[in-house]
Amino acid sequence: MSVPCVAVARERGETVRSRLADADALDGDHQIAVDGDTIYIPVVGRERVPADLADRIVERDPAARDRPTTPAEILGFEPSLERLGDIVIVDEDDDERAREIADAVMAADLPCDTVLNRASPIEGELRVRQWDVLAGNGTETVHREYGHEFLLDVAAVYFSPRLATERHRVAEQVAAGESAIDMFAGVGPYAVPMAARGAEVVACDLNERAVEYLRENAERNGVADRVTALAGDVREIADEYADTADRLVMNLPHSADEFVDTAVALAGDDCVVHYYDIQHEDDPFGPGRRAIEAAAGDEYAVAVETERVVRSYAPHEHNVCLDVRLTRTGD
Asked: From what superkingdom does this record's organism come (predicted)?
């Protein structure tokens, strides 16, 4: 059976395999093969392969891989699981059922060091939650996403792997030399890729632990010279960085509207704002647009370039993003 494979030099094999895994492009049904100095990595489809690897796709007939034992095969039902680095997260109210799932995860052929169960909702100003450690012994992990690594402790910082595609979408818009400000940066999942694209990034977060991880992640990904990491309320830096931003990321969807005045103060003459919101399905984009227009007043022309539903958040509620261009009017 002919299967598309990415062919690369053996010494690049692990790097390319990781990138394909981040893009959800790996074909788990077939084995990776080595022939001389070339490694052939089966992929599920050409459309998922990163563009710079597309010319490396060849057709091969790789050996089939034995399907691994899955938690579902052990349990007899499909549990709801989320992966974050080498941590598997379950979300069960029943402790006995949660521990049964954790035992199955650890027994399955699934790369995993720790299984956690959510023990509380996201709480407080720092947006963190409590966890029950069902297997393993820690809450720190390294998450890999589109070729970047992020060290983080899920008990100390907020991080959602579900936003990987959205973060990549924003990063792909960044041009070298831009001045970008990530107003609620966390451990750097927007800031690091933007810096990797050549932007000079100011990244701010109220959570001091998150900022420590942000600095570490900038180092890990080779962009520390282009990331200025600041701990504190972004409103406190508005005067220092006023009128400088070519791009602003506002990923604080429950309360970003409280910071639109600060965003306008930070914006340069031509600035794209990535504004995240959670709103009812009847009018998911209107409140954000109106908040930005009110803050911009006569100082900026406001153009909404993209209205995007990122994901469903709750029944009849959506997590959305507006890409908004602010252009100074000169009035």
From this structure: Archaea
pTM: 0.78
- For residues 131 and 139, what is the distance between their CA atoms, to the nearest angstrom? 8
Query: pLDDT tens digits, residue range 174-211?
Result: 999 999 999 999 999 999 999 999 999 999 999 999 99
The model's pLDDT over 69-115, given as tens digits with 9 standing for 90+, comes to 889 988 999 999 999 999 999 999 999 999 999 999 988 877 888 99
DSSP 199-252: -EEEEEES-HHHHHHHHHHHHHTT-GGGEEEEES-GGGGTTTTTT-EEEEEE--
Written out in words, the top-level CATH class of the domain with range 71-138 is alpha beta
The 10 Å Cβ neighbour count of residue 225 is 10
CATH number for the domain running over 3-60:
3.30.70.2580
Length of the chain: 331
Going from the C-alpha of 196 to that of each of 100, 129, 247, the distances in angstroms are 42, 30, 15
DSSP code, position 52: G
Q: In a 3-state reduction of DSSP, which class is residue 328?
A: strand
What is the CATH code of the structural domain delimited by 158-328? 3.40.50.150
Residue 71 makes CB contacts below 8 A (sequence gap 6+) with 79, 81, 101, 104, 105, 108, 110
88, with CB counted inside 10 A (0-12, 13-18, 19+), is buried
